[in-house]
Amino acid sequence: MVRSSADRGINRGDQIGMMFFRSFIFFLGVLATLLIGWAGLVGIPNMMISEVQPPKGLERYTYEQSFGRSIYIREGCLYCHSQQVRPVGYGADQARFWGRPSVPADYIYDKPHLLGTMRTGPDLFNIGARQPSEEWHLLHLYNPRIVSPGSVMPPFPWLFEEKITAGPEDKVVALPDSIAPKGKVIVATAEGRALIAYLIGMNHTYPVSQASASNDTTKKK
User: Is the pTM of this model over 0.90?
Assistant: First the structure.
């Protein structure tokens, strides 16, 4: 049986209509997948933490600490250090006396957060509690191996400068006589001082709940 041109036109029109319908269904499927993914990864977690309040012991960064935080990011410290303490059963953080497990409220003032993904060096979530000495940090940044023999951390000499004499506001690095420059002193620059202020300020030993407070290992070493 020979089809008329009208029949062939109707059949071709149905095929085109079905093609557009299938394309529309495929588009809806992709859109639904994206929406579900966004809800699971962004929307629902945001709703869960939107009511989180800062702990009473957590203070906002000072201007100097905020500046130091930007230096921390610029120098790539987050590529070798984390800022998150895991609970028992998720690594050796508690055995290393790094403090209580971190919680979302600890990061409420951190934008962006600097949780980190590697630990070439130790976790710094409570470095201000473990190492509150400004002199230690000055030496560690200038030459890590002075205070940590065998450390693979690079020195940061550009955060320091040589002077004939130190000013009243200068932070002098107490170098051993064997490496101290003759007739000069090494002092931290404004960037170096800010970075140290940020590091010393990382002290999250305040309790966030009764359970968390009892699990604080920072001061049990």
Answer: no
